[in-house]
């Protein structure tokens, strides 16, 4: 009997398998309702890269580094590359750079100042503890100020210890803040990105509050204050978001999600509400990540969207959300999905890639803000 049929079948099977594997690894635009989608250029970021694309999924630009932002009315790119805060012109010539580790956040304010999260380390009870800190630079690379949870850890501990909504640890023995910190700070054993034994909070987001309707009701929500996210990884302290005075760094307002879950990219909206991505609980396999819009005055949920995409229901880290000018909401999660939903919760745009190394966040920019980059390509 001729071996041809069996060889032919094997070769056909190989071609089908290879073509399917290739199609599964190639980024795909899965849904595109052009009449409902907000126009603009989309920037997405993961652990290794930042990429700009149009709404058809065409890649327009690959930026250096793993965090990226842009100045206002100034054609310069701000990135984190190889342990340096770096600015480039449109030809990717380095303008200036400052040595600093950046973790999670890099934003440019309307005043063209740069806010980022760096880290401090200190030994407490013979254990090396990691603390996050905000560093602020102007558009020339000159550092304006720092604020560290290390320097403020006693204030922060006293604040959370006096609120049972946040602090859920039954203290035995000394109430000294350093002793309490050692007991409640979660272990970082096995988390390779850290060099410390423990971590005091884990901060992942900064927003300089813009003009909004809630500031007319309470000065706590006034423009210029900082909206920060404080995350925690154990049952002693729950995660919360807080509005902080940029001068005194005292907490003026805070919000705890009902189950104390982590929150990413909380942002004050023009209508005075706050939108946030709420991570699922990794310990609960049936839990889902979701997006909440809350009224910060009453601390009630006014809009909610639960993630129901294939294989992405449980996402206990990363993720982002953004309210778009047309009223839709852009959502991104760690599994490589970026999608846009209407206020009625219909998906009108969806893009997916399995190539992303822990897709961190995605934001849509008006075309006019980044046209200078696209025109160069």
Task: Characterize the structure shown.
- By secondary structure, the chain is mainly beta.
- The protein has a single domain (41-374), classed as TolB, C-terminal domain (Neuraminidase), CATH 2.120.10.
- It is built from four helices and 26 strands.
- It has helices at residues 4-25, 153-161, 177-184, 367-374, and strands spanning 28-32, 41-45, 50-53, 59-63, 68-70, 77-81, 84-88, 94-99, 106-108, 114-124, 127-137, 143-148, 198-200, 202-208, 226-231, 240-244, 251-255, 263-268, 274-278, 290-295, 300-306, 320-323, 329-332, 337-341, 347-352, 361-365.
- It starts with a helix and ends with a helix.
- Residues 8-23 and 188-193 have low confidence and may be disordered.
């Amino acid at each position: 009997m001729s071996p041809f049929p069996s060889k032919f079948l094997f070769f056909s099977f190989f071609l089908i398998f290879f073509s399917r594997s290739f199609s599964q690894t190639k980024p795909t635009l899965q849904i595109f309702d052009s009449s409902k989608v907000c126009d603009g250029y989309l920037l997405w970021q993961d652990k290794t890269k930042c990429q700009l694309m149009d709404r058809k999924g065409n890649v327009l630009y690959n930026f250096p580094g793993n965090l990226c932002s842009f100045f206002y009315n100034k054609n310069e790119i701000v990135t984190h590359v190889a342990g340096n805060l770096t600015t480039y012109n449109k030809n990717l010539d380095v303008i200036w750079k400052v040595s600093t580790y950046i973790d999670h956040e890099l934003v440019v304010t309307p005043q063209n100042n740069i806010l980022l999260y760096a880290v401090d380390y200190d030994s407490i009870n013979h254990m090396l503890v990691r603390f996050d800190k905000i560093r602020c630079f102007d558009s020339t690379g000159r550092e304006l100020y720092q604020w560290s949870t290390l320097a403020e850890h006693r204030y922060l501990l006293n604040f959370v210890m006096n609120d049972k909504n946040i602090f859920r640890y039954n203290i035995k023995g000394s109430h000294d803040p350093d002793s309490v910190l050692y007991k409640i700070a979660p272990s970082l054993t096995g988390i390779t990105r850290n060099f410390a034994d423990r971590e005091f909070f884990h901060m992942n987001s900064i927003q300089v509050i813009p003009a909004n309707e809630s500031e007319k009701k309470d000065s706590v929500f006034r423009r210029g204050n900082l909206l920060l996210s404080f995350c925690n990884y154990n049952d002693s302290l729950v995660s919360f978001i807080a509005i902080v005075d940029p001068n005194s760094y005292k907490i003026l307002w805070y919000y705890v999600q009902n189950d104390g879950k982590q929150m990413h990219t909380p942002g004050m909206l023009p209508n005075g509400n706050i939108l946030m991505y709420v991570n699922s609980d990794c310990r609960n396999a049936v839990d889902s990540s979701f997006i909440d819009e809350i009224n910060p005055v009453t601390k009630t949920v006014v809009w909610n969207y639960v993630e129901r995409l294939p294989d992405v229901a449980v996402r206990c880290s990363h993720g982002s959300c953004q309210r778009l000018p047309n009223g839709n909401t852009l959502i991104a999660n760690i599994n490589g999905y970026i999608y846009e939903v209407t206020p009625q919760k219909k998906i009108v745009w969806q893009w997916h890639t399995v190539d992303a190394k822990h897709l961190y966040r995605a934001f849509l920019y008006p075309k006019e803000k980044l046209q200078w980059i696209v025109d160069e390509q």
